[in-house]
Each structure stands twice: as C-alpha cells, then as structure tokens.
Known about the structure:
With 206 residues, this protein is an alpha+beta fold. The chain has a single domain (4-197), classed as Sandwich (Jelly Rolls), CATH 2.60.120. The chain is built from 3 helices and 11 strands; from the N terminus they run αβαββαββββββββ. It has helices spanning 4-17, 28-43, 81-98, and strands at 19-22, 48-49, 68-71, 104-112, 118-121, 131-138, 151-154, 159-162, 169-173, 178-181, 188-196. The protein has a 7-stranded antiparallel β-sheet with strand order 1-9-6-11-4-3-2. The chain has a 4-stranded antiparallel β-sheet with strand order 5-10-7-8, with no helix packed on it. A hairpin with a 4-residue loop joins β7 (151-154) and β8. The longest helix is centred in the middle third of the chain and has 18 residues, at 81-98. The relative contact order is 0.23. The structure holds N-oxalylglycine and nickel (II) ion. The site of nickel (II) ion has 3 residues, from loops.
Amino acid sequence: MYSDEQWIEWFDRLAEDDHVVVDDFLSGDLYxxxxxxxxxxxxxxxxxxxxxxxxxxxxxxxxVRGDFIYWLxxxxxxxxxxxxxxxxxxxxxxxxxxxxxxxGSEFHIxxxxxxxxxxxxLDQFNExxxxxxxxxxxxxxxxxxxxxxxxxxxxxxxxxxxxxxxxRLLLFKSDVIEHEVLKTNVSRYSLTGWLLHKPESVGYxx
Length: 206
Ligand code: OGA
Ligand code: NI
C-alpha cells in the first residue's frame, strides 16, 4: 500500500529514535471499517477488562491499567481484512529492510473509558519477552487538547507526548521504550499490537 521508499523513511526514523509517528497512516475507508468493527464489538459486549502479566501471573488491576480489549483474529475478523493486509505489509517490509526475524504478531482493539489510564511500563514482561515492535493505531476522530489520554514516551532526557488522533500510527521498540497512557477525559479508542520474534505459544498477555 506504501512505496518501499516510504517504508524505509519510517524505518530509518524508528532505528534512529527507537520510535516513529506517522500521521494519516490509515485511509479514511480503512478507518471507517475499523470503527464499524469496533462499535459492533462494543455493542455485542466483546470488550473485556485488560489485565497485566503473562499467563501464570495474570492480574486485573484498574489502578495500573483501565482499558477494555478484544483480541483480533485474522481468519475470523474478515470485516477488517484491510487492516490485516496493511499489518502483513508492515511485517514483510520490516523483514526485508530491517532484517528482523519476526515470527508472528498479536493485536487487539482497546477502549479506555473516561477516567482511565495505563501506568508507566515496558511492553515486555520478565517471563515473556518476545515482543519486539509495538504498533499503535489511534482512532479518535475529534480528539482535542484537554481530552487527555496522550501517550508519554520516556527517553533518557525527554518525555515525548503523542496525541491519540485518528489514523495516526506509532511504532516503537518494545524492549527499550517505557511509556504511559495519561488519564483520558473521554472514551479513547485504539488498535494495538506487537510484532513477535518468537512463537506465540509462550502465551498471551490479556
Ligand atoms: C499498551 C499500551 C498505549 C496506548 O497497551 O501496552 O501501552 O497508547 N498502550 O494505547
Ligand atoms: Ni504498553
């Protein structure tokens, strides 16, 4: 969907800064498809409270993380096949241009209800460290200052604020970037995933 030159430019920024923000990454059509899917998932009560820790140490703690998620399945969720095509293109280009040995991925949609947040953390857990690249796609059409729910990226000397505006992509290196979701004052929607460098059989983090 994007030219090799375009992918390479984004990957250069990712390599240099450990993260990259791409505005207008989703087309309007794909954005609407994802939002329709999201709203069906919400109406049919498929979003579940997210927890922290991998299988054995799984816990639900709203004081740490307040979002509701629904894990996606490429075979089942054909309504958003356009998203999976784009995700597969991303993986293919990362393999080709960054020589990453990616073996799979896992994605969920996430809703942070008004008043919720996610404390500062790293997307790798001690017992399961195969998340290599974090992929965030923000879905908040009319997001404005004061709505909250910004993502804070912590670097040695700086804190970078990423506003969760619709159709924006954020990629970062899961093993080095500590980050936090600030309290949101409105419902906050995103599509979140991880590109993995080991088989998924080591267990899901729900
Ligand atoms: C996560 C996470 C950030 C965001 O799900 O691990 O950090 O901006 N999400 O939604
Ligand atoms: Ni995270």
